[in-house]
């Protein structure tokens, strides 16, 4: 028996408390009728055109994404606008859109960062930056690997654990450096470098690291850095969230995880070392 959308939304809000979201964020129901029945839910990182195609093609009545469709303020959603067009397509298909963004980042146990720490096999993982009074809720995670390994081996572990992207996995630090304690932050987590250092992390894994902070970090005795695609760092949350929603609703809704890669980068050209050699060094 399908569940009404409002019941599904209540289950999602119970796991991903809207109060944990940043003030600038746009979380919750974007479009949809709370009284409509739901028997199939699709989870994805991004609400892209291809993902909406998948929603329409599979007949899902609810799309749950991590990234908002309408993060910046809008005054209208006409059908000939790229974002407005997606809203119109969802409505015509009688499908709702729900977003769990920074509230999912901070959620305990089944949040984005908890899922990332679990995907890497970290033990005893706790938030890097606690949110509220719940010691399990907060931004990022820091925990220990089952056994020490080199930075090179850790980067290889990351490459296996996360979805493949054209950007791959980059690291900053001596490849042979031994790492045991690992800090992670799904998405853009460069601001947590100081917190990772304070927590005794040997390495910080996150996304979207900028040149200057990474260069400065390499000059001090702090954590090494591992940079992965933003999409890849947040994807492990999808099967966790989907599985928990199914359990919370006692299997009344079918859940699925989109296998579409919504990382925006589509091609990579490798360079032979000599090809990128600085003219002064030739």
Automatic annotation (TrEMBL):
Pfam families: DUF34_NIF3 (PF01784). The keyword Repeat does not apply. GO terms for cellular component: cytoplasm. The keyword Electron transport does not apply. Homohexamer. One of its GO terms (molecular function) is metal ion binding. It comes from the Bacteria. This is GTP cyclohydrolase 1 type 2 homolog. A divalent metal cation binds at residues 66-67, 105, 230, 234. Keywords: Metal-binding. Belongs to the GTP cyclohydrolase I type 2/NIF3 family.
């Amino acid at each position: 028996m399908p569940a009404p959308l409002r019941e599904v939304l209540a289950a999602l809000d119970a796991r991903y408390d809207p109060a944990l979201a940043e003030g600038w964020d746009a979380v919750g129901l974007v479009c949809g009728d709370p009284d409509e029945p739901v028997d199939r839910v699709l989870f994805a990182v991004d609400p892209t055109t291809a993902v909406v195609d998948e929603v329409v093609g599979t007949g899902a009545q609810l799309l749950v994404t991590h990234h908002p469709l309408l993060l910046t303020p809008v005054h209208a959603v006409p059908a000939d606008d790229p974002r407005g067009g997606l809203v119109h397509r969802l409505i015509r298909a009688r499908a709702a859109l729900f977003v769990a963004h920074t509230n999912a980042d901070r959620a305990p146990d089944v949040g984005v960062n908890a899922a990332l720490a679990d995907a890497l096999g970290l033990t005893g993982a706790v938030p890097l930056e606690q949110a509220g009074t719940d010691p399990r809720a907060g931004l990022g995670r820091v925990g220990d690997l089952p056994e020490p390994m080199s930075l090179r081996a850790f980067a290889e572990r990351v490459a296996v654990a996360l979805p493949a992207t054209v950007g791959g996995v980059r690291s900053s630090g001596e490849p042979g450096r031994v790492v045991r304690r690992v800090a992670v932050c799904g998405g853009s987590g460069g601001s947590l470098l100081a917190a990772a250092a304070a927590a005794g992390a040997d390495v910080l894994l996150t996304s979207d690291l900028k040149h200057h902070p990474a260069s400065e970090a390499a000059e001090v005795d702090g954590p090494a850095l591992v940079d992965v695609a933003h999409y890849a760092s947040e994807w492990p949350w999808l099967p966790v969230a989907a599985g928990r929603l199914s359990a919370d609703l006692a299997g009344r809704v079918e859940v699925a995880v989109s296998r579409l890669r919504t990382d925006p980068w589509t091609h990579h050209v490798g360079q032979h070392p000599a090809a990128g050699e600085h003219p002064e060094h030739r």
